[in-house]
Each structure stands twice: as structure tokens, then as C-alpha cells.
# Entry
Amino acid sequence: MNKIDRRTVLRGAAGVALGLPWLEAMGSSILNGNTRLAFLFMPNGVNESQWDPKGKGSNYSLPYSLEPLNALKDDFNLHSNLYHPGAQTGDGHYSKTANFLSGKHVKKSTSDLFCGVSADQVAAKYIGQNSYLPSIELGVKKTNIFVDTNVGFTTAYGGHISWTSETVPAPKEIIPSQAFQRLFKGAKQKTSTAEETKSILDYIKEDTIRMKKYLGREDSYRIEQYFSSVRSLERRIQRAAKDSYQLPRDAVNPKKGIPENYGEHVDLMLDIMVLAFQTNRTKIATFMFGNSVSPQKFDFLNGVEGGHHELSHTAGDKKKEHMIGTITRYHIERYARFLAKMKAVKEGNKTLLDNSLVLMGSGLKNANAHRAINLPLIVAGKGGGKVKTGEHKVHRPKSKMNNLLLGMMQTAGCPLKTFNDSDGSII
Amino acid sequence: MKIFIVILALSTQYLAATSFNQIMENHCVDCHGGSKTKGDVNLTVLDSKESFYTYYDMLKSIYSQVESGEMPPEKKSKMTADERKFLVDYLSSFFDKLENTDSQKTGPTRVRRLTAYEYDNTVKSITGLDLHLSENFTVDGGGGEGFTNDSAILGVSPLQFEKYLQAAEVISTHSRFDIHKGFSFTPRQDLPRTKQQSIDQIKYDMNGVVARIRPPDFNYERYLPKLMLATNDYNLSRNKAADLPKILAGYKVDKYSLKKALTYFSSSSGKAVIERDALQPWFKLRQHKYDKQMAQELAAEFTKVYLESFKKVNEVKGLKKRSYTSFQENIEKLFIYTNAELALLVKKDELERYQKLASTKDLLEKGMRSKYRSTFAKQVMPHISDFMLKVHRHPPDKSELLEMTKDFIKATGDFGIDVAARLFVIRTFASMKFIFRFERKTGKPSKINDYELASRLSYFIWSMPPDAELLKLAKEKKLSEPKVLEAQVKRLIKNKKSSALAKNFGAQWLKYGEILESEGPSKDKFPEFNKSLAKDMYKESAICFEYLVKADRSVLEVIDSDYSFMNSKLERHYGIGKGFSGFKKVSLKDKNRGGILGHASILTLTSYPQRTSPVLRGNWIINALLGTPTPPPPANVDILDDEETFNSKLSLKEQLAKHRNSANCSSCHQRIDPLGFPLENYDPIGRWREKYTNAPIDAVGELKTGKKLDGPQDLKKYLLKNKDLFLKNMSRKLLGYALGRKVYHFDYYIINKMVDSAKKNEYRFSALVTEIVNSYQFQHKN
# Structure
């Protein structure tokens, strides 16, 4: 286990008395502050009347869909009136999913992907580089492969909120055991020694460079992608030698395969995220409760019948609206469970949740009209003590969601002044 | 708002262009330009000649909407009949001209990553093993014309790279390398041997070679120790005469040998140099001599065994080094023959085999000295080259091959031959050249080479790498000869591997593959539906398509046919018989079932969990079969309520009619709904029904022209009458699939040729494929 020298402790601790056991396990990640960022996305919007609370500031009560958060009311802020101006054009759900974390316009195309780099990936570049994995991207549903020819967007848009570049999504891991292994089972090849693994990566780099001489200009970005993927694994292997971590004794150890039960699957992936944060294997994570236009059936919930997307086009039907509100409530329940887990992890005299910022929301408010203003957004956690929580923050109507994303990134230590179309910073 | 439209080359009539411009400005730009871009249509992008190509699809949609009178909406703008006719004629002549010009453009020919399906298939065809490695991969989504093989979306992220590397590692654990036979794969997974283990193995193999040229009665490994043990027993025996037969039988040695050995051991007191005559029993070995290296090997082994045997009998312990050496030398002499003599005795391939082993052993034992290296290189290079051809579907360049061989030799020195081979396997499978479908670019449009043609062909029809026959033709540069190519297309289609077209192309184009991933209908209302029924539904559609491809049937059988493939479960589901347990071709007497519109897969997919949806079904027909999609619906529309539908006093049809009458919706629904209604007799899981719970079924769709379509048979007749649309759409989809990209304006030339060719060839599937394979696009890279 790595020792932390005293200077580091002092710098990182800055006025906070840190408990030793936690410190010992922390490795070097304290160097750049230790705020974790998580971004959770749910598809198909919410039922406004069961989401928007009455009252603001600390004086508000949680409506039906948010009730599961009651016990954690002091640990988050509910944000109203935020939106992405860039997500207002373009039909349907896709154009409000791929840009959930960038606010950039999503190019309508079935072939040439183009939208913005997402906040998590920007943050990963600034503050993720010091962790074993700069970021992790998790989900529970495979990206749909069947193109909706009506809408004219590739389903790749609907399956990714994380974008490493304007044209390249960061695919999400949906298999719990795979996500777990990647985080905790080391980066080197299973049956090769470290030296052999190094040779392999050297070979692959050589071969990739050799490709350049054969490929056209339109392919060069593929080579760069490939090359940087190899580099990122190399980097991890180097880090693996330095970074130590200790899994808590009661940590999950997921079995192979995917749990059949949707809720179990969600909880398991989120548990893995808690572990990743807790052990400092990464500081940045995204999670998708479903892909854009998710047809997930929630008929295990009382009174809910039909597929999620289909229901979300309620056409003003009260019963359907309530079903959507109930589905959202179910998502919020999972979120609350996740937050509670983070809160149960002690880090010095704080909790993991205190040292995090966890965004939960949707790129649509009301899916029926594909309305994407006043987005449903919650940010839990105190960002290491920098954020006061427990409020319903009602911003000026049509304030930019990128201001919030910027605020989150800044709080976590990203030296950014603006983010895409931001015109301020809120947190 | 001004739009600027230039159509120089296309229209020599400047006047026509300005009129077009004028009409658009007067009637369209208010809603579709600049500040307002209703339906995501912005006409101001049409600002140059090039833009007419770029926005070709948009122009087509404008054309169809202006022609049908949907646009401009009556309330907003009064377009005169003359103006409308002018626009329609103008655009239609533009399309005609464009689509009938062979512009010889490739479109983007980006490197294309293997899809998950292609990956598994490719690994299987190389290794012979079903490893299902793609199970752990991430899913990319679909793109282009609606297929997973679209080059633009098939990238690689760090996560995916790690998964490819992991997969390559798994593959390598199944690999074997043999200096004689090269690379092979086995279902077993083994850890690689260490360097020492490799050396031991090689020695063992070398002895194996020796064993094959040794007299059959001689086995020094067994005979000599036995003889020595026998000698010992004999010496210790008190009653030698009586014990002799027992000793001889017990050790299976002969009396003569024992006698000689006794003489030898007594004269040398067990520790002297072996004399030649003491080894008389083996002296006949001299009939077969061995080369020096072999003799040394053999002698060393011989000595080892000899000494071990001595230890066991506790006879000789302090054999001095000098004696030991001369002992070994003596034995060596027994075996030595000149190479020339040896060549007479040993088969040529055996000798080569022995030499290969020897050079590998030298390399391993004595390091990277150049003299071993060059022999070794000569031996491994052909294996490396073969393997790379197999894995990368293209022979390596000379420089590349030298580089690979150099690395292989170095790794052999560093880690031993097994590990070197494994690293090489991982390297080839984690290479972009394997993971991507890679073509050598020259910087300008050029014809693909025969190997590249082989790959394009086999991945198009088989979703698999080229087989030996294709590779052979590629090597001989014969594949691109038109006659050879045509024969190969036919062969590939007939081969059972062409079922990949049903699993990928058909499943994604017609979307029946989606039933496997579908959430399915409401469990309460349709308890009959489960994963296994869904699989059967999928199979019916997939096998029908597979049959159509393989038997080279008319593609119009997608719309209507007098057969299908069902198992007993499906036949019962449809209520048309009891059938067999497995899938069999079934002749259909029921005219309502033939063709994909009677498949439960599609009928289920186009229903809501609680009820059927004429809109979803009509929309599917428009998109999948006719290829005349409507614009996406505005979001905030009254979508019919599930529960209310059946309680309402209005019938489903009446409700839809109401919806259709709203100005917002009418233009599209007039096209969609009439195609969905004739399928109302199929319930949400595709069973035939005569009535709703408490109302009769009205399966009549009324087209805008006033024509009525009553039931599926009318609908099928209507679709067959419009077969040109179907053929064009199918051609477009197949071309997009074959090229792994979306279709551009210049591709319509080929699409039209495909339609013509289909008509001339009884609509056979192979006609479409042949046109694609012969096209400029398919045979060129950029």
C-alpha cells in the first residue's frame, strides 16, 4: 500500500481532520482534490405535475415522483428552469439524449455522427487523469441496433450520453462482471506476464502506426482512435503498479451474465459505481437507466402497463401521466438507494456522498411534446463541502443547463471558465 | 428570406432554375427557411449545385409531398396547379437525369470495423471454434441505411479496445504452434510452456525422429536399464542357474545380451569405459548411422539413462568425469554416420523436420546468434505469412513479414517459442487489420485488388472472411475476371453460409430480428407470448428469407408467397394445423398467411402491448417495403389511448379518422392508415381473429384515391402493383448493406440498374446481388 507523505495530507485535508484508515487507502488521488462526479440519465422525461415541487429554497416539499428522496432531502438540490438551447431543434428523443451532457446540437444523420463532447469526458481530461480509470460509463441496456427510419437519427445517439469527441461516443458497459473486472481485476492480460503484455502493446502500436501508410485521410481518425486506446491501456497498466486499493469486505462480486430483473441490474451497476468511487479507482462516471426511446416495460409496478416510451406520449391522459410519474418515482427510488449507499461510506468525518456531485435527470421534461425546457435535474452531494444542499433552486426561466454542468466541473476542480454555451456557473 | 439556387449543369435553361427558385420562395420559404424550419426542413441550405446532391433525400421528400398535394398546406399558401406541375416536372427531370448517369463515384470507403456478428463468424472460420467472444462487447447501434455494418459508427474506444485485446488473448489460449505445421487451434485452453519446457519438448520430438529411423528392436531407453538391472540381479543371485530364466523373463532381455553385459561389467568393474565389443548386442546399430548432432543427442540420453540405472542398482557411484566422457564418446561413435549416408537412410521430410527442431533448440538454448536465427527465420516465416493471410485476409507485405518474423524470433529468445507464438496470435487478432475490414488506399480512387474483392464479397454474402477458394482465386488474380466473379457470386449465394443475409440484412431491413429483443406485448393480455414463441416467430421470417436467398427465388415473395416455414408451435399459434416439431416448409392454402405481412414476427412488433396499431403497421409497410417514409410525427399529438379504445363509443377506425382529419396529421395518415387497416384481422401477436372483444373487425383501408383495400389479400395485390417502389427500396437497402454506408444520390444509378435487372431476371435475388457486385462502387476504393 502506498504511503501518503505529510505534505500531501496537509494539502488535501485543508482544514478537515481525516481519519487515518481512509487516508491510508487513498493513494495519491487526494492530490487534485477528491470530488467525484456522477451523471445519471433517465430516458423519456417525467410527468411534470408529479415532479415540479411547490415552494423554493429550503422550504419545499417533494412531490410524488420525488418522494423516495425524503430521507435524503438535505443532501441534494433540485434545479428548475434549466435547459439546453442546442437541444431544442431536431425531432424526438435522440436529439435530446446524445447531448444531455454537452448541450450541443445533434446532427441529424444515420451515418455521420456529430454532437458535442460531454461534460464527464471533459472532466475526465482534467481531473480523471490521476485515477486508475479516467472515467467509467455504465448502463443496463444494449444500444438499439434497429434504426428508426422515420426519425433519421442513428440509434448510436440514443445509446450514449458520454462522448469522447464530437464524432465518437464512449460506449457503456452493461455487464456487471465485466465492469467489475475492468475496475478491480487489473489491466494486464490474464495469461501473460507484465513483460509479455508490454510486448503485445508495443506490437499493436507498431502495427497501428504501420497502418497509416495504407489508409486514406478519412480513416486517419480511426487510427488515432485505435492508437490512443492502446495508449490508455498502457497508462492504466503503469498506474496499476502504483495504485493500491482495498475492496470493502462486503463488496459485491458480480456473477457472470446480466440479472434478469431490471431493478436488480440497475442496483448492481450503481453498487459498482459506489465501489469505484469508494476505492478511488475513478472519479467520474455516467449511468443510463435506459436508452433514448426506451420501450422498457414497468408492469411490475402497481398500475403501470405498457412500454415506457409509448406511455411517455401521454396525449394528456391522466392515467398515463400517473404511470409516467410512477416510473420516474421508481427511478428516483434507485437513485435514492444509490445515494444512501454513498452516504454510508465514511471518508474522514465526511461521507462519500459529501465528496461527490451526482446529477440525475432527463434530457426531456415532457416527452409527450418532446419538450426539453425546465429539465428535471437533481444534483446530490456537497462537492467536498463547497456546495450547500437541501434546496429547490429555481433559476431564471430558460437558464442554461451548461451553467450547472460547468459549476459541477469547476467544483470538482476542472480549471474551466466556460463550457459550450454557458453564460455563468451555478451549482 | 432569400434562397439561392443554382442548377447550372443540370439545367441549361436558366429560366427554369429561376422559376423553380421563385416558386419555392413564394410558397415554401416562409415556413422552411431561416427562422422557421418546420419539420426540420430548411430550404436555405439549397444554395449551390452541390447542395442539390447533398440534400438529395430532402429534395425527394419535397417532391413527393408537393406531388401528392401535402405541401404547401392549403391554409398557408395557394400554389397554382401550374406551379405545382412545374415544380414536380422540374424535380422529376432533375432526378431522372441524375439517376441515369453513371457518375463513377465510390462514396466514402472508410475502414469498417467487424460487427459483433462478423467478429464471431470470422473467429470461427479461422479457428474452427465457436467462442462467442462478442457476448462481452458493447453494442454500437445501427446507422447508414439501417444496418449495424455502417462504417461511420463502427469505431473503437478504450473500453472496446480492451475487450478486443481480451478476446485476442482468449483466442491465443486455444492456439498451438508447431515448427512443422505452423499455427493451429484446439478447443482446449492451455497455458504456454516455459522456455525450458519448450526445449524439453523439442528434444522429445527430435528423439521421435530418431526413433523412426532406429532399428525396431532397439530401444535404448528401456533395454539398457533393464539389461543392467538383470545383470545386477544375476550377480546377486545365490543360485544363478535356477534364477536365470526368471531374470530373463522378468526383464525381458535375451540370454546373449546378458552374457555380453556380464562380461563387460565384470571386466570394467562397472566403472570403466565401455568398450565396443561390450556393446555387441547393439552393434548392429552400425548398420544405421546417424549424423553427429543426432549421435550426440542420443549418446547424452543414453548416458543419462545408463547412469540413472546404475544409481538404482547401487553398483557404481563414483564414475569419474573422464570415464563418463569417454563412455559417452564411445557410444557416440556407434551412431555416427556421414550426412550423405544418412540421407540415404532417412526420408527427406524427416531430415528437414529434424533440422527444424535442431535450429529451434539451438535458438532457445544458445541464444540469438545469427546462424541459428537465419535458419529459424526461414522455417517460421512461411507459417507467419500463412497465418497473417488467414487472419488479415490479405498477404502481408514483404517488409511487414520481415518485421513480424524479427519480432517473433526475438520473443522466442525472450520468452520461449510457445509464448512467442501466443504473443503473435494476440498481435494479429488485436491488429486493426483483423478488427477492421481494411483496404490499401492509394490516395485516389482505384480498383480494389483481388484479395479486397474477395473480402467484400464474402462479408457481403456470408458475413465471413473469404474461404480457401476465394483466396486461391485472389492469389491467382482471377477473381476479378467477370465470368469467374459471376460464378463465385452464384456459389456464395447457394452456400449455406449465405444464411447470414437472413440473420443480418433481412433481419435489420425488415426488422424481424427485433422480435428477439422485443419487450413483447402485455403479459396479462397475451400470456401465450414468451421468449420461445418470439424465437419461433423470428425463425419463420429468417428461414423464409434464407430460403429466398439460397434458392434464388423471386424477391416479390417477401410480399406474397404460397409457402412458409413453421414448426408445430407456430402452426398451432396460427391455427392452421399441428405440424412437425422442427421447422419445415409448409404449403399455404390460407392466402392470408403468405408473405411477410402474415408473419407473427412483424405483426407483433407493429402492435402496442395492449392492442394492434394500424398506424404502426402502415408505417412499417411504408418504411420497410415501399421506402416512402413520411416525416416524423409532431410530438404533441393525440395518440390514441389504449384502454379507452375499446370502451369508447367510437371504433378504433372512427377514432383514427378523427385524428386523421386534423390538418396536422392528415397528410401522413392518409398515406399510413389505409395500409395498416387491412391487417386488422391479425391480433397483437399475429393470430387471425374475426372480431374484437365486442365489435366486428373492419379491415378496409381507403386510399386517398378512393380505392379500398379489404383485408391482407387486397393489400398484397396493391403492394405487388407497386412493386417498382418495393424493388427500388429493397435495392437501396441491399446496396447500403453491401457498401456499409448510407446511399448517396450517385448510387441511384446502380439502384435503378438493380431494379431493371430484377425485372429481366424473374425478380431473382441473385440479379440484385450481381448488379451490386459489378458496380463501380463495389469494386473501387477511395
Observations:
- Chain A has two domains: 33-174+258-411, 185-252.
- Chain A is about 35% helix and 10% strand.
